Amino acid sequence: MEVTSISGTPSKDLEHLAITEKKCSSGKQRLNFIESLNYYVSEIVATTTLLKRTVGNQFAAVKEFASPSKPDLDQDRADIVKQKRNDQGCHECEVLDSRSEAAESVYQWSACTKNHGHHKFIPVQEFCLDHLPKWCQRKFVFDMVRIMLVLTVRLRVTYTSWERPKGYSFYNHRGSDVLHTGTGFVLAVVEGKGPCQCRSCTDSSSPHQKWYQILVHSACHVVFNTEEAQHTKVDFFYDDKTSRLTSLWVTQAIATDPLADTCTLLCATHEEALAEKLYACVRKIENHSQDIKMDRLSKDLWRLCVVVSHPHGQPKYVTVGRGLKKEAQSYVYITDTCPGSSGAPVLVFIPDDDQLKMSDTGDLSFVAPHSEWLPDEELNQSGWARCFNSPFVKYLEYQNMLRDGASFDTAWKQLFASSIKFPE
Question: Which of 149, 222, 159 lies closest to 186, judged by CA?
């Protein structure tokens, strides 16, 4: 008697084996039966092992995504990172160990207690007109936010200066190489003069002669001075985990103001495509600000506040909230932010009204770096606002005129009269 093949389903397999065993009347038939039984058992074991491995891997992947494990840091180093994270008052830098930056950034995002789940943080790739409140769903507003998404950058600062004053953020960690991250935004792009000042060109015997100066605006507590600026890397276009980053080192801080909590940083690049893309976006922002001025219902826009940031050092996210009031030259607003949002562009659409006009150049100011979260009031406050057509651009033009051989007096007359103290 021949033993037929196993059917493939557990219940039918067991029934088939029981019937086959009863029909076995000879030694050969019993040997065939035992071989079939062994085959069946081996198939069950193999299938079970594969199932466990597959399910286990999928469960591990889901578990890692949903609740990443805390990076395994040296305890002393972990304590220093935690202490620095808590040594910034109400400011919102993220502090990470550079040796496990990516893993720790993911962990801090997952473990965040301020905005658990980050439900109001919109990935930039998903941001659309419907995310704006209905009363301000206008194309030029949406377009302006989309442009600002391109101009927003991540800052990674790998040194804390000894010049930070007592009582200022990170004072107790002066001289530290513990990484902190923040956000900034491109303010202007100006063609450079002379040899390129980027790191690769300054170390080269044949530096590029055509290059560009990129001005990045942020909060002073993120980058305090040129010493810190020269240990700061700017990441452009970090929109999602698959983004191809373009990163530049900062060459200097051309203006810092602890009172206003603003800083303007200078990057140098000879990558023409990068400069042209950023310059085009800056010009579009300037044009859209004119649209806001001419909009008859622009006073309604005062209630809108949009923040674009890199929370916890992660890719860009957009949060939408309300502008409440202005204090001096800064804004107060209710819009979700997280550690890592310090220095992020805060877009508050101010109407063309003399009482709300804040620009010392006569242009509309609508963007400022995020400064701090006020937990007792559950409000946010920005640093001082600057418009894109700012005195910093004039300062660079002034420097370039000097490089071209113009006299100091001639160049100085071209510089905007401003309260900003420029470096000598």
Answer: 149
